[in-house]
Amino acid sequence: MPFSRSRVQVWRAAIVGLFIALALSYTLTIPLGEAYDEWAHFAYIRYVVNHHELPASGQRLVPEVAWDATHHPPLYYLFGALATSGIEMSDNLRPRPNPHLPDGYTLNAYIQGPESQWPWSGSVLGMRIARGVSMLMGALTVLLTYHIGRRLAPDRPEIALASMAIVALMPQFLFTSSIITNDIAIALLTTLAVFLSIRFIQAPSFWGVFWLMLTTLAALLTKANGVALLPSAMTLLIVMVLRRGGPFGLAKRLGLIAGGVLLLASAAGLLILWESWNTYLHGHHSSVSGAITKYILPAILGGAGQRGQILAWGILPAGLRYTYQTFWAAFGMGNIPAHGAFYIAITVMNVLALLGVGLGLLRGNGAPRRGLAAMGIIALWTLVPPTFLILSSHITDVSPGRYLMSLAPIVAIVQALGLAELAPLRRRRIVLASYVSLLLAFAIAVPWLYIRPSYVNSGRVSRSRLEEIAQPLEFRFGDALALVGYRLPEATAHPGEITEITLYWQCLGKMEEDYTISVQLLDPSLVFYGGVASYPGRGNEGTQFWEPGEIIEDRYLVRIGDDFPAPAFAMIKVEVFQHGTYAFLPLATPRGQVESGGAVFGRLRVVDPSIRQGVSGRSVGVVFGEAIALAGQHVEGAFQAGSEIAVSLRWRALAPPDQDYTVFVHLLDQSGEILAQTDGQPLAGRYPTSLWRTGDTVQDVHLITIPANLPVGAYQLAIGIYRLETLQRLAATDAGGTPLEQNQYLVPIHIAKAAGP
């Protein structure tokens, strides 16, 4: 069914509405400040609103962050200031950096206080409205993408609709449109430049040159990478002058390019003057003048032995790979990637789209070549600044994909054109709709699958609920906190895996600062095998905001060391300290004793997957009680008086034992008198029977020393299990179910004469 004009308008409005709805879900899910330089961008806007002037270049507005945004041109911030001009933002709200971000465990860069909660006011309201400005710019970019598609394929409205839908659903474009950043402004202006370029190619006019140059100037006043539009516009003008025919004669064409060159030269001059005045950018490698003088000219004009050495070409593939992945999906500070399958799938679609565009050009029924050429020119020049930054800085992750967010509409158009060209004529709309549907599903899932889980605060529980779900504890840390409970996962843990430990804190009094909580895993010998240290809520929550009396449920994800000596139980050690000074809060144990160490408690079952595999040894089949079987035994040693023998026992759990049992191995004479013995829990107490699960196979070794004066002869090893509290042995039966005498299994051995000197 062909698209009528009214149907096209309905679909266009629906896509814009869908984009706004998704952008709202993103912006409400992303905590304030949790994006590239967002605090710095907002501080610029707030300064303009509060002081009615631009900040000085390089001025430190938010010393808490790595760098400010005052080196950027002002256009984006003026729009943000205009939108927030009626808001009282004299509260001067400051970011609270998370000092544990570099550790890699926490993902949030800042701690959120109660002021960020609804209802919003002051600077928080200003940040929300400034995000709305970015959202509006994103929506305009989506609309412009539709008009570019109509210019390229006027008889195929499905291409224009699919293009705007694809860009509206690109995860990173949605993210960029939902935060405070001038990257979205550059995306809007570049998209406008693409539209104006294609329109100028199709219908040249002096006004076309004027609007294109005005857009280029606006890009230069927005961000330094807007300089990519300068050579793009220059290339377009040169092509138009060399083009024969058209509505203009040679004189008018020469006048056209002269005016354009003058405007572009003026823009370039203004840019260099701006960089010279801008103390932050002057001579900086990301500035145009600095790049020319420090890198480009030396690389080109240097001696044969020096030429090109300044640029690190070897890291370019890795750098571009990072740029590519973060262009499609990298949330937060770029430290929240998507699943690897997404990047593979999107790469396959991009390859197919490029093949489809090439096929369409060969067939002669693709989009107009000149329109695609204009997009290609702008895309190539847009790639130059981030590529040069990788080469000159020698850093692979220096150019995140947001630097190329202006290419999102171009990528969307290429995908729509290419995928449609590969599909059969009658199936093109179905193919495009299927791809858009997949993007829609992923775009909807991103806030709940990736973003929200990374910034979830600690929970609150009642005392009654605590008693239902937690193991009780009674540890106090100073006068501030009490550790009142914990919960360990029921699932079996394995070395190298991440396990979740839940702690329950009670706030005893108002705290003036945020405390770091350390959670460690220790083996039974108190050796460290993994741990984390962060603020609560995986770093998202500060303890200074906790209210006295409330009980906080806090989860910690701890990776168990690969070399953990499994099977064994791991214990949890918890400490509370001040970050930076490492002043630990004193610990009061349940007995009221004050100690300097941490609170140690709990038993987490850690086993190797091979625990369910059999091991070598003589098969026995003796059953002790109803839960434990002796599945094999092997005795090694010199079997001489005064020597030591190793009794290797292979236990198998027929059911989970109900408590910790003790294993005995006794050396008996023929009358049953005990001559030597060793008693203890399996694996020297490292893996007690109460932790065993059905099917577990445990290799347990007991060492027993033969008395030095023992005569040569026949003896027996008695093996059994008993309860330590009562010394009562578990009933023992053989494989046929016959009870064993004295509930012990006997192994005959022969003791030889001790070796002489």
Give an account of the 3D structure.
It is built from 17 helices and 22 strands. It has three domains: 5-451, no CATH class; 459-607, Immunoglobulin-like (Sandwich); 611-751, Sandwich (Immunoglobulin-like), CATH 2.60.40.10. The chain starts with a helix and ends in a 6-residue tail after the last strand. The model is unreliable at 303-308 (pLDDT under 50). By secondary structure, the chain is α+β, with helices and mostly antiparallel strands. The protein has helices at residues 5-29, 38-51, 75-83, 122-152, 157-169, 171-177, 183-202, 206-220, 229-242, 250-277, 288-301, 316-328, 340-363, 369-393, 408-422, 428-454, 463-469, and strands at 330-331, 336-337, 459-461, 471-477, 481-487, 498-507, 515-522, 528-534, 551-559, 568-578, 587-588, 594-595, 599-606, 622-624, 628-637, 644-653, 662-668, 674-680, 697-705, 713-722, 732-733, 745-751. 40% of the residues lie in helices and 19% in strands.
Brief summary of the model shown:
The chain is α+β, with helices and mostly antiparallel strands and 757 residues long. It is 40% helix and 19% strand.
Summarize the amount of helix as a percent range.
25-40%
Give the terminus-to-terminus CA distance. Answer: 104 Å
Quick one: overall form?
elongated
Using the CA coordinates, give the radius of gyration: 36 Å
- Specify the number of helices: 17
Fraction of residues in β-strands: 15-25%
Number of domains: 3
Biggest sheet descriptor: 7 strands, antiparallel
- Poorly predicted tracts of residues: 303-308
Helix/strand class: alpha+beta
Strand order of the largest sheet: 3-9-6-5-4-11-12
